[in-house]
Amino acid sequence: MNKKCIICGFNEFDVLLNYQFEKVVSSDNKILNKNFKLLKCKKCQHVQKQLDKSLSITIDKIYTHYEAYSLTNGNEEQRKDGNNISVNRSSLILKNIKKNIKKNGKLLDIGTGTGVFLQEFSRQYNWELYGCDVHNNIKSEIQELANFKKLFIANHDIIPSQQFNIISTIHVLEHIFDLDLFLNDIKNKLTKDGFLLLQVPNISENIFDIFIIDHVSHFYYETLHYLLKQYFPYVYFPKLQIDREITAIASKSKINKIETLNVLESSINLKTRINNLLNYLSNDNDKVAIFGTSPPALFCASLLNFKFDCFIDESCLKFGNILYGKKIKSPQEINDDMKILFPYSKKALNNILKRYPSYKFICLENII
Fold first, then answer.
1. CA gyration radius for the chain?
2. Is 70 exceeded by the pLDDT of residue 288?
3. Nearest-angstrom CA–CA distance, 168 and 191
4. Alpha-carbon span 118 to 19, nearest angstrom
């Protein structure tokens, strides 16, 4: 068992949760049975799962049969932009760096998955594109792009050092056991004026991230900043942040033309919120619908023992699909008197209410 903090190496923790409910989810939206311990470092306040052999075996099994975006046939999840228009998450992330992208360059995307980030980058820029993943699950249309050069297979291929102007890791860092090895490797593969573009879940806005079993780290702005500053002298949090996520840019040299957040968010009382959440979902509830089909929604479904009406999702790619025996419906199929469990932030609900003002939402963030 690794008895040290993943990001600072300190060996003393507070136990935030000794989880015995067993019901957890994977990041590719599968329900699993697994207990775990959630720890908080007494020095840097980083929140992580207890790293032991049992957890490692469980995660290895998940990655062996990993299916990203299975409900959308490998297509990227849609998010609403500032004008309430559905766009790819990757396009929102790229808005943060558009003023800093040169005419030509090389991009390495680590954790490529089906290749959705590379595909979006290719639509906007004529760079050389490289991917890296533990599996060769990249979509065939990505490999056929004129500017796509190579997919490296982790633990098999050797990736050249000092070759890339941008390295992207979109929802990768939270999976990594050895962050020191990982970030040192990235630093060595960046050009002198290159930068790392990354995104992770934001635990202060998404408490459900704790119950995604293959996420071993759970970041706040402060702890992510503390981690990145150990490897890069310059760390930026762009002003355009996606709900429930943290986008960050880290570099060896100063980057201009990035609008940044002024204040880092303070940590929250996780222990109380976790207990309130588990108590609420463990009690009998009225028959409800669950908004969304992501891991938070699936976790709620599992703790409710699937005693609810249906899932609701705004993605037309998911309408009519069956997820764990429950139909995925569009919001237009729901009666106004149906109670809708909303396992996301109050900020996200405020945007949803603009589209569905008469619906009866139960926001779990208000309860916990």
1. 20
2. yes
3. 14
4. 37
Average pLDDT of the residues in 16-40 = 94
Asked if residue 247 has pLDDT above 80, the reply is: yes
CA 166/CA 155 separation, integer angstroms: 21
Read off the tokens for 317.
């790619």
Is residue 239 classed as helix, strand or coil in its secondary structure?
coil
In the sheet that holds 13-19, the strands lie side by side as: 13-19, 36-41, 47-49, 217-218
Backbone angles phi, psi at 194, to 5 degrees: -80, 175
Query: pLDDT at position 257, please?
Result: 83
CA distance 251 to 90: 20
CA distances from 250 to 36, 85, 239, 255, 338 (A): 31, 29, 15, 9, 45
In tens, the pLDDT along 291-314 reads: 999 999 999 999 998 889 999 999
Which value, to the nearest 10 degrees, does the dihedral of the CA atoms of residues 58, 63, 65, 68 take? 130
Are 114 and 137 spatial neighbours (Cβ–Cβ below 8 Å)? yes
pTM, two decimal places: 0.90
Report how far residue 182's alpha carbon sits from residue 179's, in angstroms, rounded to the nearest whole number.
5
Report the length, in residues, of the chain.
Answer: 368
Domains of the chain: 81-251 (3.40.50.150), 270-367 (3.40.50.20)
pLDDT band at residue 161 using 50, 70 and 90 as cut-offs? confident
